[in-house]
Write a structure and sequence with these properties.
By secondary structure, the protein is α/β, with parallel strands linked by helices. 35% of the residues lie in helices and 19% in strands. The chain contains 8 helices and 8 strands.
Length: 209
């Protein structure tokens, strides 16, 4: 199976275009509180230029429905990604494809994570490293804890992925997709074309292994 690749935290068209040129299947823009929170004019520019076969994803945290609807008014095919304590009912009522982040805590068991996922039957789950905030780089979590779940339902793995470790993640979990943010950025927090290209190559190599 071909692993999908999403590069998150694109703050302008230059970063988004670099991600697309590298071969990303999806690009993420952040509407939640974050140093990478996108401005509305930059979002509108990306919405007007993104190719039809690249999936746009908007990242929210405990949003109001009006926030989601405003973003979808600009980009109707926007996939909603949620990182808060949204209920399963809220996720199901949004409509369209929704990605629900499931934080992986130290000591989490497969059973505990699977139970959390059950609350979101209509969502594509994303396993991410649990942390107090998302302002800095994350460390990878223990991928073996989510591998059994990824065999029963499509799942995305995020949190601390880099060109150096993503191949091991793909081979260990065989997820539907992988998501990188700081792991493909330069020291200034801008998307690095060389790192993104290396990330894509590592994923494709792992797919073929």
């Amino acid at each position: 199976m071909r692993t999908r690749v999403k590069f998150c935290g694109c703050t302008n068209w230059i970063d988004a275009e670099a991600a697309i040129d590298a071969g990303a299947d999806a690009i993420g823009v952040i509407f939640a509180a974050s140093p990478r929170r996108i401005t509305w004019p930059d979002f509108e520019e990306i919405a007007g230029k993104i190719p039809p076969l690249v999936t746009p994803v908007g990242v929210f945290e405990n949003p109001k429905r009006a926030e989601i609807e405003a973003a979808r008014d600009v980009l109707p095919n926007l996939v909603v990604q949620l990182h808060g304590n949204e209920s399963g009912t809220f996720v199901s009522e949004i409509g369209g494809l929704v990605i629900k982040a499931i934080p992986v805590l130290p000591g989490d068991s497969v059973e505990r994570l699977a139970h959390r996922c059950e609350e979101y039957p209509d969502a594509l789950v994303m396993f991410d490293t649990a942390r107090e905030n998302r302002t800095g780089p994350a460390a990878p979590f223990a991928w073996e804890h989510v591998a059994p779940i990824a065999r029963t339902r499509p799942a995305i793995v995020a949190g601390g992925l880099t060109p150096e470790n993503v191949a091991v993640c793909v081979q260990s979990v065989r997820p539907f997709g992988v998501d990188a943010r700081s792991g493909v950025e330069d020291r200034n927090g801008r998307k690095d074309p060389a790192k993104m290209a290396a990330f894509i190559r590592a994923v494709r190599t792992a797919d073929e292994a």
